[in-house]
Automatic annotation (TrEMBL):
Domain of life: Bacteria
Membership in a protein family: Belongs to the enoyl-CoA hydratase/isomerase family.
Protein name in the entry: MaoC family dehydratase
UniProt cross-references to SUPFAM superfamilies, sorted A to Z: Thioesterase/thiol ester dehydrase-isomerase (SSF54637)
Gene3D superfamilies listed in its UniProt record: Hotdog Thioesterase (3.10.129.10)
Native species: Nocardia jiangxiensis
Length: 150
């Protein structure tokens, strides 16, 4: 984990990679729980028998599950001290490039693209690349915007 003591240290890291998380295994229970939470029970995610005959040879994680896991993965990869709170402010561009098979492992690689001052803190844009172990291309790339309030 990359730990920044304060907003000044964090801001000085613009243009660099600021952290890489540990690997996380995506199991069927997590996929099924996400399906239940969102109501997205498409067979490619929740029916291993049918998915085995499908285009990916088995069930895959929902793209939005992969994206939502960027939050705990990024929090594992980097932290900023001296702030009252961090708020996910939104996303710019998001792409789901490589499907994540059930049983696959993902991790986040985080780069700090820009920082600007806002009332009470800063707004940062990060590129979060969700890598899939053993894949040539990432599972997901997202431009994430976070606000740190001091």
């Amino acid at each position: 984990m990359t730990e920044f003591a304060n907003l000044e240290e964090f801001t000085a890291a613009v243009g660099t990679e600021i952290g890489v998380s540990d690997w996380m295994t995506i199991d069927q229970q997590r996929v099924d729980t996400f399906a239940d939470a969102t109501g997205d029970h498409q067979w490619i995610h929740v029916d291993p028998e049918k998915a085995a005959k499908g285009p990916f040879g088995g069930p895959i994680a929902h793209g939005f599950l992969t994206l939502s896991l960027s939050v705990p993965l990024v929090n594992q990869a980097t932290s900023v001290g001296g702030v009252r709170m961090g708020i996910n402010y939104g996303l710019n561009k998001v792409r789901f490039i490589t499907p994540v098979p059930v049983g696959g492992r993902i991790r986040a690689r985080v780069s700090l693209d820009s920082v600007r001052e806002i009332p009470g803190g800063i707004q940062a844009q990060r590129t979060v690349t969700i890598e899939l172990e053993g894949a040539d291309k990432p599972a997901c790339i997202a431009e994430s915007i976070v606000r740190y309030l001091s």
